[in-house]
Design a protein that fits this description.
The chain is mostly helical and about 260 residues long. It has a domain of about 170 residues: Orthogonal Bundle (hpI Integrase, Chain A), CATH 1.10.443. The protein contains 13 helices and five strands. The strands form two sheets. A three-stranded antiparallel beta sheet has the order 1-2-5. It is globular. The protein starts with a helix and ends with a helix.
Length: about 260
């Protein structure tokens, strides 16, 4: 705001330079870190409540859009940019080639396309949704042609929903389901954590999410990768044959004689 005032003063030839230009860059952290926050995934039970409420309170399109983010791990912009031609229902997959924001389509994050495996139950819903979209297209006089999966009726179906509308939708559903507020990206976090807690390979999760490196996946989600916990601690350190219930194994470490230490 201050910088804008100085810019107007420059336009009016009152001053020659803007002393506030670049000030925010000096004060704020790097842009990529400004909006970072810890992942807040739903538990499985919370996700069931969330999607169940969405099914009852939202339109077919809105509910399925949330399900796709939760069950395919797409970023919000990638889900909004989904097109029918990139959906392969026979191979149970979707080819992510675009992202959408502010009436603009562009390449996905990192500029990389990817093919995402879809669960069978989601594909079945997408088949029903395809039929629904074709019927709607015929009613509107477009001849049954379907392009965008999640076009906004308020935009006369020419554009997808805006990111802001989806953010508001997620908050509304959270409130209606009696859950702590989340943002759309937490649906992607939920997808990743559910896969990892079910012992899916971290490498496979990386591929599904489209992370540019394995380290990014591990940095975000490593504490959700399950281990054997306390029960398997000794096995991991000593081998299973060394652990005997109710007995400390012989570690070949000799205690010092207290008399010798005196």
């Amino acid at each position: 705001m201050i910088s804008g005032v100085f810019e107007e003063a420059i336009d009016d030839e009152i001053i020659d330079a803007n002393p506030a230009r670049g000030l925010l860059k000096k004060i704020l952290p790097p842009k990529r870190q400004r909006y970072e926050k810890d992942a807040a995934p739903f538990t499985r039970k919370e996700l069931v409540r969330f999607l169940g409420y969405a099914q009852s309170a939202c339109s077919f399109t809105e509910a399925l859009m949330l399900k796709v983010m939760a069950h395919a791990g797409l970023r919000l912009g990638e889900a909004l940019a989904m097109r029918m031609k990139h959906l392969d229902l026979d191979k149970l997959s979707y080819h992510v080639t675009e992202s959408y924001k502010l009436h603009r389509f562009k390449k996905p994050k990192f500029g990389k396309t990817r093919i995402v495996d879809l669960p069978i139950f989601l594909v079945e819903e997408l088949k029903d949704y395809r039929v629904h979209l074709k019927k709607e297209s015929l009613k509107s006089g477009r001849g049954g042609h379907v392009d965008l999966l999640f076009s906004d009726p308020g935009e006369k179906s020419l554009w997808p929903y805006s990111q802001r509308k989806v953010q508001a939708l997620v908050k509304k559903v959270c409130k209606g389901a009696g859950l702590e507020f989340r943002n759309p990206h937490d649906l992607r976090h939920t997808y990743a954590t559910l896969l990892l807690m079910a012992h899916q390979s971290p490498g496979y999760v990386q591929k599904q999410l489209g992370h540019s490196s394995f380290s990014i996946t591990m940095d975000i989600y490593c504490h959700w990768i399950p281990g054997e916990g306390r029960e398997g601690l000794e096995d991991a350190l000593l081998g299973s044959e060394s652990v005997v219930p109710n007995r400390v194994p012989n570690l070949h470490i000799f205690a010092y004689n207290k008399k010798r230490l005196q």
